[in-house]
Amino acid sequence: MKIKIMESPFNPWDEMQRYEKEVLDSLYAGQYGAATVFSGTMRDFNEGDGVTGMLLEHYPGMTDQYLGKISQEAAEQWDLLDTLIVHRVGLMMPNDPIVLVAAWSAHRGVAFEAARYLIEELKSRAPFWKKEQLLEGERWVANNTPA
Amino acid sequence: MIQVRFFASLREEMGREGAELEAVEASTIGEVWEKVAAGKERPANLLMAKNMDYSGPDTPVCDGDEVAFFPPVTGG
Q: Where are the domains of chain A?
């Protein structure tokens, strides 16, 4: 169960591969039949406007605590081997990865359900806020889009 | 002392990152808001946390607590 807050750009597929090699393969080689991933990337449009950049603010400490709580809840609810959450903060550009959640299990069903839980709970409970830079001016995102 | 923190759009509206209160000035999170908000009505969708756990306006506070106020979260 790993949480990472990144202040600079990251590659979700490199993060997946590194975590599998460094952790899963040493603890659970031959046991994880399923890995499910949600990768979120910054769009260059929102609510009909072009978006040129985005500042992602968070509440250091509470963010880690809630991502940890969410991961723990998933671990208690499903028969998982491990989970990984990586989230970007700071100033980012369109096409930059924002978030990665991944779940490993023996079988695909629980891995899919757990990854869905992790991203939906992250979006509704983890203290992050997005401020979009538009062609003219900037604005705070008021609400996340429905799933 | 009670440390008060504001985040995101609320920080900009308040014009400051936070505030400090003497513990005797407020006994609940709702009272903390009244002390630091300078008459601003509490937004209906305002979120509150005490020591980094989501809480409500009736949650008691005491010396050494950190209280945070912020708008709905939009991560992911």
A: 2-139
Specify whether domain B2-70 bears CATH 3.40.50.1000: no
* Mutate: best of B3, B9, B17, B73, partner A, most A CBs <10 A: B73
- Neighboring chain A residues of B18 at a CB cutoff of 8 Å: none
Q: Is the complex ipTM higher than 0.90?
A: yes
pLDDT in tens, A8-51: 999 999 999 999 999 999 999 999 999 999 999 999 999 999 99
Instruction: Identify the residue whose tokens are 């806020």.
Output: A129
The CATH class, in words, for A2-139 is: alpha beta
Cβ-proximal residues to B58 (8 Å cutoff; 6+ apart), any chain? B28, B29, B30
Q: Which chain B positions have a beta carbon within 8 Å of A59's beta carbon?
A: 5, 7, 49, 52, 68, 70
> Please, is B28 exposed, middle or buried when counting C-beta atoms within 10 Å of its C-beta (0-12, 13-18, 19+)?
middle
Q: Which of A98, A129, A144 sits opposite B8 (nearest CB)?
A: A129
Radius of gyration of chain A (CA): 16
pLDDT confidence of A147, banded at 50, 70, 90? Answer: confident
- Tell me what pLDDT residue B6 has: 98
Say if residue A146's pLDDT is above 90. Answer: no
- CB atoms closer than 10 angstroms to residue A60: 11
